[in-house]
Amino acid sequence: MTSSLLFYLLIAIIIIVFLIDLLLDLLNARHYTNVIPEELSDVYPKDEYEKSIAYKKTNHKFKMVSSSISLCIMLLFFFLDGFAWVDRIARSFSGNTIVVGLIFFGIIMIASDILSIPSSYYQTFVIEEKFGFNKTSIKTFFMDKIKGLIMMTLVGGGILALIIWFYDLTKSNFWIYAWALVSVFTLTMNMFYAKLIVPLFNKQTPLESGELRDTIEAYSKDVGFQLKDVYVIDGSKRSTKANAYFSGIGSEKRITLYDTLIKDLSKEEIVAVLAHEVGHYKKRHVIVNLLLSILLTGLTLWFLSLFIQNELLSEALGVAVPSFHIGLVAFGILYSPISEATGLIMNLVSRKFEYQADNFAKKSYNGEALINSLKKLSKNNLSNLTPHPAMVFIHYSHPTLLQRIKNLRNEIH
């Protein structure tokens, strides 16, 4: 294969992935106004249902425009030898491979982040504001951007520097050391994310004493779940949308409830949501997902080791001097079809886990309370009740609301 042929293969992959996503979005949009199944007829009042359709259509149109602009910018960058230009800038600062790699990706990431600001700003302060979701201040919006950039520089830059160092030392065997590094980092984040990262963006406080806490503690004792504490996060700082999640392993496990969730749901519904999260722990989903993530990382790095030393990767992007950072960019695009396939498998596993967690909540607490909470959350988030099956199969990490209700009422699974 010539470098020219590889270049056009990269372009073809980018366009094909875009077109597949476009097709899925178009198919999904055609289902927005489908007749709502009888099981979901009580989710939306008529005016709220019309509002949900308008919300979905607005987001669909916005995504079509923003993703098309992003594609055009990316293709222009490729055809104008943008990677070679950035590589020359990076090499003008240093001859050290690690420094050059860090500067190269730093320029790419910062430029990408800056270009994404108008789109993100419009999404937050126009669309989300229009439909009553946004609670983010302009100050919080830009502070989040700055904090994210600092974290990306320190954490992402540190990991990248070590991986390039491993490559310089061991060449094709670098993936083993890189895999060990990323695995340790993944494990650390799973254990301490709520303590290390979340406080940078949100305030977390233990759930105050009272009837809700007493009910949660009583339920936890009944199912043998050692509950160190339940935390409430100030999700209302940014949005009216509600959520809850389980994080950590071992002694660091915790359940976090959004303050908006506590506001929107009754005591029984909140405990039902919590029972679902406990189900993930009891069924070992957190551990399984962690192991799958580590295995997929190892697979990706191994594939990378097979291609990274091929000079064609650099030549295809118009860069005269072969390097790890240029090879990584080209490989990332070449690997995207495999990444899409593994993502599909992970979504299949995730949806199965959601059914299992729902079933645990039903058996250990109250299935109807969980159904009521899911309906309220769908209504408050203006969720799509009639997504296209192809969109669900490829992109949904959770079953649809209808599928979850049927499962909880023993109509499926």
TrEMBL record:
Domain Peptidase M48: 206-411
Protein name stated in the entry: M48 family metallopeptidase
Transmembrane segments: 6-24, 65-86, 98-117, 149-168, 174-193, 286-304, 316-336
Pfam family, one: Peptidase_M48_N
Cofactor notes: Binds 1 zinc ion per subunit.
Domain (CAAX prenyl protease 1 N-terminal) ranges: 29-203
CDD domains named in the record: M48A_Zmpste24p_like
Signal peptide: none
PANTHER family, per database record: CAAX PRENYL PROTEASE 1
